[in-house]
Design a protein that fits this description.
Layout lengths: L13 H50 L4 H9 L10 H9 L2 E8 L6 E8 L17 E10 L1 E5 L9 E5 L2 E4 L8 H4 E5 L3
Antiparallel strand pairs: 1-2, 2-3, 3-7, 4-5, 5-6
Length: about 190
């Protein structure tokens, strides 16, 4: 009779299972890294699109030649300038690692611009097939909105054509010294 040592034929069966679990976890970690890499590229492209759209809308605002006759209609939103403004978008997109794919003034009754960009760098080599040459794309819209409202003068003999109410500060207009466009209008990103 041979003594029994208590060992069974299942000894060592956990090793292949352990190797499979570790390899699966490693694959998942690399896949999450690839998804994170793509997300970072997308966020970078969105930042570039935001900067380019803001630059285009700011260029539109600053290039507008303000006259006293246009002031009331401009502040009321009845006059929408159709300036291009896309020259500055290329510079700001490039500084943020992207190229402008499209830039156009808004045609929906708002004053501003929409810019679409594509990242200059690809997502890169990951474990996911087909990502080597993929680049991120993003679009942003910036609008020019008034900071002030115009109240025309009721006195026809007044040297001032009216007053501006700019966020609570009221000032009489001097027809020979109109405020800067940056004092009258702000540029901000739109939700769409």
């Amino acid at each position: 009779m041979t003594p029994s040592s208590g060992k069974t034929r299942e000894t060592g069966q956990a090793s292949p299972l352990y190797i499979f679990v570790v390899a699966s976890l490693l694959f998942l970690a690399l896949a999450f890294f690839a998804v994170g890499q793509a997300g970072a590229a997308r966020n970078g492209a969105q930042s570039a699109a935001d900067a380019a759209a803001l630059a285009a809308a700011r260029e539109q605002r600053d290039a507008f030649e303000l006259t006293l006759d246009d002031l009331g209609d401009l502040l009321d939103g009845e006059l929408i300038p159709t300036l291009d403004g896309c020259g500055a978008s290329h510079s700001y997109a490039g500084q943020n690692g992207a190229n402008v794919e499209a830039c156009a003034p808004l045609a929906d009754g708002r004053w501003g611009a929409t810019v679409s960009v594509r990242s200059q760098k690809a997502v890169g080599d990951t474990i996911l097939p087909g990502t080597d040459d993929l680049t991120a794309e993003a679009t942003a819209t910036a609008i020019v909105v008034p900071r002030c409202s115009f109240d025309p003068s009721e006195d026809g003999d007044s040297p001032s054509p009216g007053s501006l109410n700019c966020e609570g500060d009221v000032l009489d207009l001097d027809p020979t010294d109109l405020p800067d466009m940056s004092d009258l209008f702000e540029v901000r990103l739109a939700e769409d």
